[in-house]
Specification:
109 residues; 2 domains; 5 helices
Length: 109
């Protein structure tokens, strides 16, 4: 992937994942993705088609706006296993349990 295409694809992903984009109830429009990425409309369309086909985004049939799809959730869950607070806290929790001779738990909401 060329640097400019990589940057544009990153911008499309950021717009889809951002707090004002596809991760919200509002969603994000095709034109917004074109403007944010600087890519031509057909290129954005091809990217979205691939993401749609693989379940990473969904398109609202009424508004035609794009939202994150179920596969995006799966990726988030998998990433949370690797980078989540529970995994990062395990060494400290184990040490706390040893030092206190008691059980140590972490609860997150």
């Amino acid at each position: 992937m060329t640097p400019s295409l990589y940057t544009a694809a990153r911008l499309v992903a950021q717009r889809l994942l951002g707090s004002e984009g596809g991760g919200t109830d509002r969603g994000v429009g095709h034109g917004e993705l074109v403007a944010a990425s600087g890519l031509r409309k057909p290129t954005v369309h091809r990217l979205l088609t691939a993401l749609l086909h693989n379940g990473f985004v969904e398109q609202n049939p009424r508004t035609q706006r794009y939202h994150l799809g179920p596969e995006s959730h799966v990726l988030g869950v998998l990433a949370a296993r690797r980078f989540g607070i529970h995994r990062l806290s395990l060494p400290s929790l184990a040490k706390l349990g040893r030092l206190s001779s008691d059980a140590a738990f972490l609860t997150a909401r």
